[in-house]
Give the backbone structure.
Amino acid sequence: MMTAFITSLVFVVLAEMGDKTQLLAMAFATRYRWQTVMWGVFAATVLNHLFAVVVGNYITYFMPLSYIQIAAAISFILFGLWTIRGDELQGEDKDTGRSPFWTVAIAFFMAEMGDKTQLATVALAAQFNTIIPVWLGTTAGMMVADGIGIIIGIVLGKRIPERAVKWAAALIFIFFGLFGLYEAVPKHLLTTTNMAATIIIIAVLIFITGKLSKENPNVETEK
C-alpha cells in the first residue's frame, strides 16, 4: 500500500514538471489568490484521478497482470518522451466570467482529460491493482507539483524556462520504464541483442523528440 502511494506521488510529480496543468497553475497564480487556485486544483484532481484509478483497476479483471506491467512500463517511456516534447496552453487560462474557484477547477479538470498525468494514473492503478493508495498518491503528487507552479507564478510572475527540469523528469520516467520492462518481460527475451536494440531505439526517440521540442519552443512555456 505504501509503495503504491509513494510511487504514484513521485511519478505524478515528475509527470507534472513542465506539463500544461503546471503552466496553468502558474498562470492562474498571477491572477487569483493562491488559496483559490490550490482548492480548485484539488477539487479537479480528486474527481479526475478517481475516474482514472477506477478505470485502471478495472483493466486488471480482463487482462493478464504481466501484460499490464509491460504496457505500464512502455507507457512510462512514452510519458518521458511526452515530457521532453512538452505541452502548451490552449486557451484554458482565459477568463470565463465564472467565479475564480470554478474557473480554476473546470479548467484543470478539462486540461487533465487525456493528459499524460491522467494516463499515468490509469497505468499505476492497473500496475498496482489498487485504488485508494494510487488515488491518494497521484492527488498528492498533483498538489505538490502544481504548488511548485503556483509558487513560481507568485514569486516570478513571468514565463519560466522549464527545459532542464523537464529533461530531468523525462529521463527518470524513461529509466523507470526501462526498468519495468526488464522486470516484466519474459527472461528468455532479455538477450544482449534485444536489450541493446531497445536502448538504441529509445536513444534515437529521445534525440528526435528533443529536436522537435527545440523546433517548437512554444510548447515549453505558457502562451
